[in-house]
Amino acid sequence: AFTKLIIKECRKNHYQPIVVMGGRWQSYRFLSVSRKKILHDILDAHIRGKYTLTIPVTMAQIDHFHNWIFPETRENQMQKKNKSLEEITAQQQVNFARHFGMADHGKIPAKVYFELYPVYYYFKNVLFANQRLRDVQKLQNTDLYRMSSPNNRHAVLHGHKTGYASEGRSLKQVLFLDKVLQTADRVYKKEPF
Question: Contact, 147 vs 22, CB < 8 A?
């Protein structure tokens, strides 16, 4: 029901909320002209109902900004292969703290933590949950497993899943990309969170 409400709101006045969002994206100074064109095309395709195009392209853009906002070393990636879900989550909290210049993840200001960590957590555990992580989630945290759709970034971008296209999924990706771009803009401007 909530997804239908959001879809209805975004369709108002010939997709005016989406058009306004696009205008905001075009104003971001950290984006190149070529990336702004891609972002414009994402919103245009969404408005035209071409969800098989919007979802993978939006995922790729989110992937780019994920790596820009939350860089991770190859060593960290390799170390995660044999860890439990609790160990992975604990390491994510430490990585999160390091990315934002905080020495101790236990001392992250609540405002910063609650604003940014959900984005980071969603990146790591839902949108980018590959099959190996999903297997760990299935054994150790069934709620998280249910959240991490098999239509994740890896499955869609590598062509393993094809039944992912829907207005709701496309809109969720677009709205998530909007939050990511807002976060990236604040990082670019070095504004406090």
Answer: no
- CB-based burial label for 146 (10 Å; 0-12, 13-18, 19+): exposed
Q: Any alpha helices (H) in 70-166, and if so which ranges?
A: 74-79, 85-99, 110-122, 131-140, 142-147, 153-157
Q: What pLDDT tens digit does each residue of the chain (193 aa) get?
A: 677 888 999 999 999 999 999 999 999 999 999 999 999 999 999 999 999 999 899 988 987 887 777 665 455 555 555 566 566 656 655 555 554 444 444 444 455 555 665 665 565 555 555 566 666 666 776 666 666 566 667 777 788 888 888 898 898 889 888 988 887 888 788 765 4
> What does pTM read for this prediction?
0.69
Identify whether the C-beta of residue 152 lies closer than 8 Å to the C-beta of residue 88. Answer: no
Q: How far apart (Å, rounded) are the C-alpha atoms in residues 42 and 56?
A: 10
**What are phi and psi for residue 190, nearest 5 degrees?**
55, 35
The Cα–Cα gap between 65 and 68 comes to: 5
Distance CA 81, CA 107 (A): 28
In angstroms, rounded to a whole number, what is the distance separating the alpha carbons of residues 54 and 127?
15
